[in-house]
Amino acid sequence: MRFDLITLFPAMFDALTRQGITSRALERGLWSLRCWNPRDFALDAYRSVDDRPYGGGPGMVMMAEPLVAALRAIDADRASASSAPVLHLSPRGRPLTHARVLELARAPALTLLASRYEAVDQRFIDRYVDEEVSIGDFVVSGGELPAMMLMDAIIRLLPGALNDPRSAQEESFAAGLLDCPHYTRPEVFENEPVPAVLLSGHHARIARWRREQSLAGTFARRPELIEGLRAQGGLDAADERFLASLAADARPGDPG
Ligand code: 4F9
Question: Is 98 helix (H, G, I), strand (E, B) or coil?
Answer without folding.
Answer: helix
